[in-house]
């Protein structure tokens, strides 16, 4: 899979507000570092479809995984199935970021931002493909919802990676502190419903943390 990190998204992760542009020297640094991240990345994705069962306001069964989350339950209302999803940029991006940490603070910040923008672009592209596949089967896909959004506990990271067998399939593991490795990785749940709904929220729009400094201004 190939993907590119949108320049505007890299700038957003660096803290630039809408309408504010980096100076020419900084722009050159951003574009150069973004190109290096894209070259280093080896994007991989994996997914599976599971049955969904709901109980009460916050009880869910995603296949064999039991979850308590009112936010996720609201996102999945009306769905009959879920897709478990995982994506990663691979270890080389992590190594690139780590090498920049020794005295190259500006480069390191741009690598981090470019990695964040690129993994989102990879997820968006993969989710678009899953949406087309689902619609061909008569299902409509809801936006992805990741552990850590709202009250969907980050402790479900191991459940998702274990069921998807991500260590052997795409090299993605979870630390004891529930962090994903490689760092530039994502796990998520997406509902599948028989009825289309006017629901296009994703990323910032699906997260209740309104004071996040990286939140899109349109959210």
Give a summary of the structure in a few sentences.
This protein has 219 residues and is an alpha+beta fold. It has seven helices and eight strands, in the order ααβββαβααβααβββ.
Describe the structure.
With 219 residues, the chain is of the alpha+beta class. The chain has one domain (7-206): NADH Oxidase, CATH 3.40.109. 38% of the residues lie in helices and 20% in strands. The protein has 7 helices and 8 strands, in the order H-H-E-E-E-H-E-H-H-E-H-H-E-E-E. It has helices at residues 7-13, 24-40, 70-75, 91-99, 105-136, 157-164, 166-170, and strands at residues 44-55, 59-62, 65-68, 81-88, 140-141, 173-174, 180-181, 185-193. It has a 6-stranded antiparallel beta sheet. A two-stranded antiparallel sheet has the order 6-7. Strand 1 (44-55) and strand 2 form a beta hairpin. The longest helix has 32 residues, at 105-136. The protein is globular. 37% of the residues are buried. The model has no long low-confidence stretch (mean pLDDT 90).
Itemize the secondary structure elements and their pairings.
Elements: H1 7-13, H2 24-40, E1 44-55, E2 59-62, E3 65-68, H3 70-75, E4 81-88, H4 91-99, H5 105-136, E5 140-141, H6 157-164, H7 166-170, E6 173-174, E7 180-181, E8 185-193
Antiparallel strand pairs: 1-2, 1-4, 2-3, 4-8, 5-8, 6-7
Helix pairs in contact: 1-5, 2-5, 4-5
Number of helices: 7
Computed Rg: 18 Å
Helix content: 25-40%
Order of helices and strands: HHEEEHEHHEHHEEE
Overall 3D geometry?
globular
Task: Please report the distance between the alpha carbons of the first and last residues.
Answer: 28 Å
The CATH topology comes to NADH Oxidase
Largest sheet: 6 strands, antiparallel
Q: Give the tally of β-strands.
A: 8
Q: Domains counted in the coordinates: how many?
A: 1
- CATH-level-2 architecture: 3-Layer(aba) Sandwich
Strands in their spatial order, largest beta sheet: 3-2-1-4-8-5
Global mean pLDDT: 90
Structural class: alpha+beta
The percentage of residues in β strands lies in 15-25%
CATH class: Alpha Beta
Low-confidence stretches: none
């Amino acid at each position: 899979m190939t993907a590119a990190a949108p320049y505007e998204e890299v700038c957003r992760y660096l803290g630039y507000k809408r309408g504010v542009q980096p100076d020419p020297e900084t722009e050159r640094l951003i574009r150069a570092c973004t190109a290096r991240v894209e070259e280093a990345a080896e994007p991989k994705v994996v997914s599976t479809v599971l049955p969904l069962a709901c109980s009460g306001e916050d009880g869910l069964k995603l296949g064999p995984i039991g979850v308590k989350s009112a936010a996720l339950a609201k996102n999945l209302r009306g769905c009959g199935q879920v897709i478990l999803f995982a994506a990663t940029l691979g270890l080389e991006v992590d190594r690139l970021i780590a090498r920049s940490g020794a005295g190259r603070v500006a480069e390191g910040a741009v690598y981090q931002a470019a990695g964040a923008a690129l993994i989102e672009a990879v997820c968006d592209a993969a989710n678009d493909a899953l949406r087309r596949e689902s619609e061909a089967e008569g299902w409509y896909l809801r936006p992805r919802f990741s552990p850590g959004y709202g009250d969907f506990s980050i402790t479900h990271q191991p459940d998702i990676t274990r069921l998807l067998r991500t260590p052997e399939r795409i090299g993605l593991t979870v630390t004891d502190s529930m962090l994903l490795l490689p760092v530039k990785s994502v796990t998520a749940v997406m509902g599948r419903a028989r009825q289309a709904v006017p629901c296009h929220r994703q990323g910032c729009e699906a997260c209740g943390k309104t004071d996040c400094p990286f939140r899109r201004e349109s959210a």
